[in-house]
Amino acid sequence: MVDYRTELNPAQWDVVSTLDGPILVIAGAGSGKTRVIEYRVLHLIRQHKEPGSILLLTFTRRAAREMLSRACRRDVRAKNVNGGTFHSFAYSILKKHAPRIGFDSFVILDEDDAQDAIAACVKRLGFADSHKRFPKKDTLRKIISAAVNKEMTIDEVLEADYPQFLEWSAQVSAIATEYARFKIEKGYFDYEDLLVNLKILLTKHEPLRREIAAQYHYIMVDEYQDTNTLQADITYLLAKDHANVMVVGDDAQSIYGFRGASHRNIMTFADRFPRCKILKLEANYRSHQQILDVANAVLADMKHKFSKQLVSAGSRSGDKPKLVHFRTGFDEAAWIADKIVEFDDRGTPLNHQAVLFRSSYVSIPLQVELQKRGIPFVVWGGMKFYETAHVKDLVSHLKVVVNPRDEIALRRILMLIDSIGTKTAGRLIDSVSADKDRRAPMAVLAQAPVPAKSARQMQSLCALLEKIADPAMGLVKKFDCLMRYYTPILKDKFDDHAERASDLEALREILAGYRQLDDFLADFTLEPPERSGVPGRAFSGEERVLTLSTIHSAKGLEWDCVYILGLIEGVMPVSFSLNKDSSIEEEHRLLYVALTRAKKHLFLSAHYENSGFGPQQFNRISRFVDSGPVLARLEQIVSEAEDADSERPYDG
DNA sequence: CCGCGGAGTGTTTTT
DNA sequence: CACTCCGCGG
After folding, report:
1. Start-end of H helices in A555-650
2. How many angstroms separate the CA of A166 from the C1' of C9?
3. Are strands A635-638 and A322-326 parallel, antiparallel or unpaired?
4. Of A73, A186, A408, A477, which residue has the fewest beta carbons closer than 10 angstroms?
5. Between A146 and A646, residue with greater pLDDT
């Protein structure tokens, strides 16, 4: 048996061994936070606490997965520990108790579905053609979502973040109300509803709250600075009876303010649990000192000061972090690809290297370069596999099979049929829901009048849905039937259908891992698969594959060698953040998160020639890097690919 | 009432 | 550039 005490420093051991009572852990980057949670779980189990009574919650799927799999590797009993994202936890509780809050069942809307539902509300209310400059459906969705996540009114959200739409405040509020009504009528839950309804369940049904709370005797929440007030309330409601709750966070790494996260939750926690023990983890086990010097210098430049200074506890080898300048994004991509290969050859394999960026599009030149050279990579974050139109088309068919009254999915698949547009689809859906005899929806559809041109396709759709509704048919078989129907549509609708077909092949593989269609659909919305950089191949994580990731998705992870792309104004900080101090601060913290991912080698890069459209402008180096103390800790390199005649690389 | 083509717009991070 | 939205022809 391992003696944790020898593997942990006194502060870490203190956290691991304090099992009862509330604990607030302030953990700096690389301070062994994940390890502490892992060992605390193991310690609880060895103290004969029931694994099923332990609950681990986080905000991101990735962190949740990491946390659970680590503990399992050490002790199989940890498999029975409960955990996941707040959203998936809410789903499992609500699914079990839906009737108690007045729902027989519910269907989860993803972002796209929610936007479509909102667009339908806008139309119903007749605001569609009211005027120009009316917020579009994705903006409306963001406003409504922000209001829920930040517990603000629509007007407050508009005032704070969308002053240009203040003139429409009455209409936006009306849309929000209509959207809420629509969701209740149809039994739809969007992401926020999962949290809101869990909170309602825990607030308004005291016996049930006690029953649920009693199941989870030890609660731990990771990345607490990224929780919003709803999530903090849920944590409180679950934990208040026994107060055996540990939350871990780092206010310097708070990067989800845009979706309502409040690092103030850290302060509120101490108020709600007054007896709480506050413990700090400050020693950094990840990075060598020269990397930490850069991170500390970046931290010191922030308006809002943090008291932490990271001190390296180890003596890792490494070299001085570098800032490399290029002319174009393509030069940048080529140089980095060279470096990656060079490190790989010298003993830092691809899976110990990562390229990080603010926004996915920044990585496109590099992706092209890597493809060209045959360097395998995975992309985390950004446009998701499951959000692409062809995947959604296919999944919508499956949704209709499971729930023929899923209006949004039904509308989507009807409109794939030639000469069926919004009107005809709307009429068909109305006839299904208005059917007095409550016949099977497929039977109603098959008999409903449709334009002559669509009759044949309509018949084959009905036949298909009927056929694959057979519970005895395996999921892969269903998929294959569906593909026979969908392939002509795919070819007609997309120029790049060959590439998309290989995505669907990947979907087939995923489906093969499930027995029940509704399990697959719930996972697909709440814990969707990531897209692999190499089409049609999924990577397990242990393989020698390079990681490309948004900084957001890289949180909590570490690599020997880290490259951060696009350190230019407009990308980092991103241009939309420029008019708000709090947003710029968040961008600043984002850079801090990125820097602290590196263990041994760190490269920052920038290119000064604007590759976008529009008037030719020159990029300026990011204000976060362009500061004396930060530059002093970086070795600057000007790439050889640069033209000798450019005298003023950066504008301004 | 569908669907095409052109104009216009805004561009991010996650569940 | 890529996507959405609008207006017009079929």
Report:
1. 581-595, 628-631
2. 38
3. parallel
4. A73
5. A146
Q: How far apart are the C-alpha atoms of A110 and A60, rounded to whole Å?
A: 16
N-term to C-term CA, chain A: 62
Per-residue flag: A169 CB under 7 A of strand B: no
Q: Is the CB of A556 under 7 A from strand B?
A: no
Q: Which residue has the tokens 């936006």?
A: A172
Q: How far is CA A221 from CA A182, A567, A608, in A?
A: 33, 32, 42
Alpha helical stretches, state H, A513-621: 517-526, 551-554, 581-595
**CA/C1' separation A389–C3 (Å):** 13
> Which nucleotide lies nearest residue A139, CA to C1'?
B10
Q: Cβ of A96: how many Cβ atoms within 10 Å?
A: 10
Q: What is the mean pLDDT of chain A?
A: 84
Closest nucleotide (C1' vs CA) to A554 is: B13
Q: How far is CA A151 from the centre of its chain?
A: 21
Say how many C-beta atoms besides its own lie within 10 A of residue A338's C-beta. Answer: 12
User: Which nucleotide is nearest, taking the CA of residue A424 and each C1'?
Assistant: B1
> Given this model, what pLDDT does residue A305 score?
65
Per the DSSP assignment, residues forming a β-bridge with A82 are: A55
Q: What is the pLDDT of residue A15?
A: 92
Looking at residue A325, the DSSP 8-state letter turns out to be E
Chain A 37-76 residues in 7 Å CB range of strand B:
59-62
> What is the residue type of A186?
K
Report in angstroms the alpha-carbon separations of A652 from A78, A282, A620. 56, 39, 7
Nucleotides of B under 7 A from a protein CB: 1-3, 9-15
Among the residues of A126-278, which ranges form H helices? 137-149, 154-161, 169-186, 191-204, 206-215, 229-239, 264-272
In terms of Cβ atoms closer than 10 Å to its own Cβ (0-12, 13-18, 19+), residue A2 is exposed
pTM of the model: 0.86
What is the amino acid identity at position A532?
S
In the β-sheet with A559-564, what is the strand arrangement from edge to edge? Answer: A377-380, A546-550, A353-357, A559-564, A598-607, A322-326, A635-638
pLDDT tens digits, residue range A390-405? 888 898 999 999 888 8
Residue of A277, A268, A267 whose CA lies nearest to A243: A277
Query: Strand C: which residues 123-152 of A lie within 7 A (CB)?
Result: 128-129, 136-137
Q: Is the CB of A197 under 7 A from strand B?
A: no
Comparing every residue's Cα with the C1' atom of nucleotide B1, the nearest one is: A423
Nucleotide nearest A59 (Cα, C1'): B15
Query: Strand C: which nucleotides have any atom within 7 A of a protein Cβ?
Result: 1, 4-7
Q: Which of A604, A552, A605 is nearest to A360 (CA)?
A: A552
pLDDT above 90 covers a percentage of chain A that reads: 30
Task: List pLDDT tens digits, range A28-53.
Answer: 888 888 889 988 998 999 888 898 99
Q: What is the dihedral of CA A427, A432, A436, A438, to 10 degrees?
A: 180
Nearest to A530 by CA among A393, A545, A256: A545
Instruction: State how far the Cα of A350 lies from the Cα of A327, in Å rounded to an integer.
Output: 26
Rounded Cα distance between A247 and A25, Å, is 6
Q: Residue range A159-173: average pLDDT?
A: 84
- Paired with A637 in beta bridges are A324
Measured from the CB, is A87 under 7 Å from any atom of strand B? yes
Q: Who's near A312: CB < 8 A, 6+ residues apart?
A: A284, A287, A288, A289, A292
A150 touches strand B (CB under 7 A): no
Query: Which nucleotide minimizes the distance between its C1' and the CA of A85?
Result: B15
Cα–Cα dist A621/A618, whole Å? 10
